[in-house]
Protein: Acetyl-CoA synthetase-like protein
Organism: Obba rivulosa
Amino acid sequence: MALSDYIVTDDLTIILALAAAGLFVLHNLYKPQSLVHPILLGRQSDVARVRNPGESAVCRNYGTGMLGRFPMRPTKDQQVLLDLVRPDADAPRTLWSTKITNPQLRERAAAFGNGLIEVVGLVPKESNVLLLLNDSIEFIIADLALASNSIPSFTLNSLSLLSPVLDTHPPSAIITHAQFLPFLLELIYDSRESSHHKIIVVGEPDGKDVKDLPLFRFDEIEREGVSIDSDGDPADHVPDPGEVFTVAFSASPSGELQGAELTHENLTAGVAAARALLPLSSAISPLDTIASAFSLSTPYGRAIAYTAIYEGTSFATLDSAKVVVKNGRSATTDLEDLFSMNSLPVPSPTLYFVKPSHLDKLASAVIEEAKKSSSWIMYNLAWRHKFAGLLEGFLTKQSLWDRLVFDAARVKVMGKGAGTVRGIVVSGGNVDAQALTPARIALSVPLVNAYSHPLVAGPVLASHPLDLQTFPLHTQKAGQSAADAFAFTYTSPVGPPSVNIEAKLVGVDDPAVENGADPVGALYVRGPSVGKLLNTQDSPVQEENAEDKGWVNTGDRAKVAPNGTFKVVSVVAKGSST
Ligand SMILES: *[C@@H]1O[C@H](CO)[C@@H](O)[C@H](O)[C@H]1NC(C)=O
Ligand SMILES: *[C@@H]1O[C@H](CO)[C@@H](O)[C@H](O)[C@H]1NC(C)=O
Ligand SMILES: *[C@@H]1O[C@H](CO)[C@@H](O)[C@H](O)[C@H]1NC(C)=O
């Protein structure tokens, strides 16, 4: 072998060594930094030091602290519902398809409120009104008008509750869409109830439906309300923040009618909790557009809508959130539903409040598109780099790999929404433990996994948006049933309690907990955003025990980790709207 051969090899070795050293330095220089300090994630709730036998310790959000006061409202100025329409902010934004400023919204609500009393003859503190409306600006106007005049509203999260509510809680008046009138009248005649509801319709009723009916038109009430002098001062009547302004009816897990009474205070607390989902550094601003899959007829959906109104963002709900659908829905896919608001004149959404199936379908569509449109090698490299970033707690939409592989796929699937979306809050069902990482890679925006409940305004539990940790699947531990072990293994954590909630588990296995197992039991919550269960004959959910005052059984099972992050599994699958 000639000498030169050795020399060539040596050169190559040196070059390779240099390259390797260079890569090592580069890797360390550009190693992604965790976006949130791990210590913060290690302690997400403040956990009480003692626990009652058979119960977990009580957990509160770390931001609230064990002795801290709950942030009951966004600021001290939001005492009642109308205060969430801040009089000092007057930039227009679009709600569904109406561009409107706060002063205009307040005027319309005031006029409609006058009309309800003077034209329709409703009586504050006596009348009550069923809001049988799809999510719309009319819903908000009516809601604000009723709440400001101390006339409680009823909402239904499903049309199947209409007959039971008319039977058990006949309202003084019903506000509904003109198109829905024939259906409603049929139902009222069928039920042969004696009470005569006043009916107010949005839109133009069909002549033949209204022949001899005392019908009121929404727009006429509003128009006449403008000219009525409500004794001059609209501040004449200011409702008490502790007053029940709405009863949100839903079907309990066992299918019975249940109602959540919410006070102004409960809802402002829900808005305060919803605002706290995003860290201060990326707080909601008037530049945002919020899209929600949760009906205004649910306390959670209502809290999201009023969060949007409080923050001055544009807002719309997805098609699937609409409740007043008489002949069943035309079948739409989750993706079509997600983009259903593209037909509205609202800007492209920046924040989505959606269900797990929406997230799932969106992420899979992006991943499929990315696989299809790039080579196998590029796709795999991109996936591995983004995954490595996640393991370091780092997430960006702007890496080389996004530009090379994922950006185009996102645009293909989401259109201009690909560029605008900056956060997604998922709730209303279990998020599969395996689903979060692909979703984070595909969408590369902060994801919050939240737990919501039909009795609570705003989120109950919610994960930190930048908590990217994933944990190996656990196996069954001592003291855990096989079913629990299975259910909790495949469920993503929903984080600590929101800022206005205390949570604990009841019926935990004491010996197992003493041996170091994580407590598992029935999830109980309380706090200012929790509504009160309306007293119906059989209300098994409310805890009557005096000692346990204020605690509400959610009806779901949960497990809490030592750092106060929860996993929840629904015992009975809930209806489509949470
Ligand atoms: C919470 O605690 C669990 C169990 O101790 C641990 O695996 C995990 O690191 C913690 N979770 C977070 C988000 O810090
Ligand atoms: C409510 O919204 C749904 C979904 O868009 C629609 O199908 C239905 O017709 C609406 N109901 C009324 C009465 O307008
Ligand atoms: C809901 O609001 C009422 C009155 O404002 C308040 O007394 C109650 O404590 C709130 N609910 C809970 C569960 O705290």
Remarks:
- The first helix runs from residue 3 to 29.
